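Hallway conversation turned thread

IA: we were arguing at lunch whether anyone had actually written out Carbon-nitrogen family hydrolase end to end. Turns out nobody had. So, for the record, here is the sequence (267 residues) and right after it the structure tokens. Reply here if something looks off.
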Amino acid sequence: MRASLIQIAVDPDEPVDSRRERAASLVAAQRGADLVVLPELWPVGAFAYTSFEDQAEPLTGPTHTVMAEAAAGAGVWLHAGSFVERADDGVLYNTTLVFTPEGERAAAYRKIHRFGFDQGEAVMMGAGEDLVTVALPRTTLGLATCYDLRFPEMFRGLVDAGAETLVVAAGWPERRRAHWSLLARARAVENQAYVLAVGSAGTHAGVQQAGHSVVVDPWGEVLAEAGADEEVLTVEFDPAKVAATREQFPALKDRRLGLAAPRIQQT
């Protein structure tokens, strides 16, 4: 299975409409891939809090339209990263979209763990409530966004819901890049799953982005890693390795502490 992680750079001087079209062009260039993934809040920038209100869109707004067309044009499953969604009741969400190779929306995931403590995203946006998985022909994706990566119980819930490939779209800052690499590998090892973690490049509201998108296999081995600049990271991986790893080293069967039943959307 071939995955392409598009580590797009966010330039504050680039108009949002232009970046949408540029992202669509990058997706179009990945024809032949099975899965293409974009990072968190690439239309506006993950740390550009002052722009969230102005750049918010309805679920089926311009980002949805452009990305649906890009998925269909390239014939790929497209994890379109996330954008600022304005719900019908006016609440803002950090929302991820996934499209089929026909351009149909397969899933929407609202970020559960909002970053910022008492400012920024944490106070400006609503929190999602549902764990979301997406069944592809050869693997089941579990969706997560940036700060979610620090909460292992969420990923265990995704695995309990059938996830075999954990996709993390992020706008992770350079100053905590060591945590990004460590946590991506930890989530892969503890869940015996692939982790596809895609960050962005450039600078979001003065915050330098870490880049270094990474693909980790179920044993915690790094299959591929990007640098700091805009880049498309493409890797071949074998989804069957998840079941093989869990059979060879059946640690998940030895769990003693369970979770409260989560709300799960399976598509």
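OS: looked through it. Residues 2-266 form a domain with the Nitrilase/N-carbamoyl-D-aminoacid amidohydrolase fold (CATH 3.60.110.10).
IA: good, adding that to the notes. The chain has a mean pLDDT of 96.
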